[in-house]
Structures are given as structure tokens and as C-alpha cells.
Amino acid sequence: KASRVEAVRELIPAAAPAASDEPFLQCANVWKAYGERDVLKGISFNVKPGEVVAVIGPSGSGKSTLLRLVNHLESIDQGEIRVGGRYVGYVKENGRLRPTSGRAKARAEVGVSMVFQSFNLFANLTALENIMEAPVRVHGVPRAEAEALARRLLAAVGLSSHADHLPQHLSGGQQQRVAIARALAVKPRLMLFDEPTSALDPELVGEVLNVMRALAEAGMTMIIVTHEIRFAREVADRVVFFDEGSIVEEGAPADILDKPSKERTRRFLSVIG
Ligand code: ADP
Ligand code: MG
């Protein structure tokens, strides 16, 4: 286990210098509506370098929407999101912040990577090729260099011997580990996980959580939307409880998960627990 943390640590950018108290991610009064429906109602939310934040909350409460906004997949209606102190990737237009064209490049610039519930691997590419894709196509990394990195990433997630497998020949847990390796290949400074184990058979959840745990211990800055309460308690520095587009409460895992101060949080935990 220690060696996995070491292997991962060598592959991720150093955490931002502690000299700065600046949060790495700053969301201030973020509003987002779909049609008439307010999905995010003035979210303010910061993440410090190296911090691991678990986001929990009922289905439909806006958790995925928040991650998509941070990852420049959609525009925001009001408020601002800064990554590494910059608004990179957004332009202000009629008072709105709109993602600029070339979003993949914008994401690369700000250093955000996302892992989805449904893995989203390219079905026609091998595990190795999936990991090489973004470095080669978006970042212009020479193939040999991208392949060397991809092999080290596969080793770090325990899949060295699966380099040439197509996704359809991998288990869900293996596919998700490839997806994490692929997300790491662009050297992100912030990793977003949207229910990364929700689509997995129970016996495959652990292998994915182990990789995420190693990443957390190696110092990666992470936001993890999850229903794995035990994992959140153990790995997160902070737990944020979302409901109906607002942050209901947040704090240390022991406080939020074991003695929440809000009734809504208690109710949610009793239902999923
Ligand atoms: P969560 O991840 O917490 O389950 P989401 O962020 O996915 O919640 O969704 C929040 C709300 O926004 C839901 O009511 C959902 O139906 C709605 N929603 C999400 N994406 C869209 C979209 N592209 N168009 C319209 N409504 C959406
Ligand atoms: Mg969701």
C-alpha cells in the first residue's frame, strides 16, 4: 500500500506551496438554472491545496452540476468560479460567465480532471491508448513520452498487465481504474470524482476506493461526490452536505457524519446509512 502511494506521488504535480493560504478552488455565490428551475442557489465553496472534500446529498440536489461547472462543461448564471486564482476558460458576456471555446484546452490550462460514474472510456481504444489520448491530442505530448507516462500510470493503478485490453474486456472496477489513470495523465491539480463507484458491483468498489485513497494520501486535491460514507469518514478532510441546490452544512467528517446539526442531514444519513 505504501508503495502504491509512492508510485502515485511521483506521477502527480506537487501540491501548491503552503506559503499561500489561497484556496485552490473558489466558488463564490454560484447560481445555475435549467429553464425555470434553480439547480444551484448561491453556492460558496472553497477547496485548499491538498484538501480532500467529500460531497454528499440526495439525488437531484445539484452535486453533479457543481462538478460540471468547476470542470468548464457548462456556463454559470451568476457568481464566479476561480481555479488557481484564475477565471481561465470563462469569458464574461452580457454579465454571464461563459466557457470559452476550446474547453478541453481550458480544462488543461487550469488543471482540472474529472472521473465519471459511467467510466466513459473510448470503447475502441485499449487501456493504454485511452490514457495516451489527451496528452497526445490535446497537449501535443510526443507519443513515446505519453506512452511511458501511461505505462507508469497503469502500474500505479495496478493494471500493468492490462495495457492492451479493450474496455469491454475489463471489469467495471478495472475500467474505472483506467479512467482514473486517464484523468491523471494530463497532470491535473484538482481531481473531480462524480460517484465513481456507484455503477460498480459491490465486490469491485474496494479496488477503486484504494486507488483514490492512495491519491488522497499522495496529496492530490480532490472533490468526491459519493455515497460511500465510510470512505468519506476515513479519507475526507471535510464533508459537505448538499440539498436542493444549497450547502446545508459542512465540516469535519466526524461532525457532519456522526453528529450533524441539521435535521435534513440527519434524515439523509439515516436513509442511506
Ligand atoms: P445530483 O448530481 O445531486 O443528483 P444534478 O446536478 O445531476 O444532481 O441535477 C440537479 C437538478 O438539475 C436535477 O433536478 C436535474 O434533473 C437537473 N438537471 C441536471 N442537468 C440538467 C440539464 N442538462 N437540463 C435540465 N435539467 C438538468
Ligand atoms: Mg449526480
Automatic annotation (TrEMBL):
<keyword id="KW-0472">Membrane</keyword>
<keyword id="KW-0547">Nucleotide-binding</keyword>
<keyword id="KW-0813">Transport</keyword>
<protein>
    <recommendedName>
        <fullName>Glutamate/aspartate import permease protein GltK</fullName>
    </recommendedName>
</protein>
<keyword id="KW-1003">Cell membrane</keyword>
<keyword id="KW-1133">Transmembrane helix</keyword>
<dbReference type="GO" id="GO:0016887">
    <property type="term" value="F:ATP hydrolysis activity"/>
</dbReference>
<dbReference type="GO" id="GO:0022857">
    <property type="term" value="F:transmembrane transporter activity"/>
</dbReference>
<dbReference type="GO" id="GO:0043190">
    <property type="term" value="C:ATP-binding cassette (ABC) transporter complex"/>
</dbReference>
<keyword id="KW-0067">ATP-binding</keyword>
<keyword id="KW-0812">Transmembrane</keyword>
<feature type="domain" description="ABC transporter">
    <location>
        <begin position="25"/>
        <end position="269"/>
    </location>
</feature>
<dbReference type="GO" id="GO:0005524">
    <property type="term" value="F:ATP binding"/>
</dbReference>
<comment type="subunit">
    <text>The complex is composed of two ATP-binding proteins (GltL), two transmembrane proteins (GltJ and GltK) and a solute-binding protein (GltI).</text>
</comment>
<dbReference type="GO" id="GO:0006865">
    <property type="term" value="P:amino acid transport"/>
</dbReference>
<comment type="similarity">
    <text>Belongs to the binding-protein-dependent transport system permease family. HisMQ subfamily.</text>
</comment>
<comment type="similarity">
    <text>Belongs to the ABC transporter superfamily.</text>
</comment>
<comment type="function">
    <text>Part of the ABC transporter complex GltIJKL involved in glutamate and aspartate uptake. Probably responsible for the translocation of the substrate across the membrane.</text>
</comment>
<keyword id="KW-0029">Amino-acid transport</keyword>
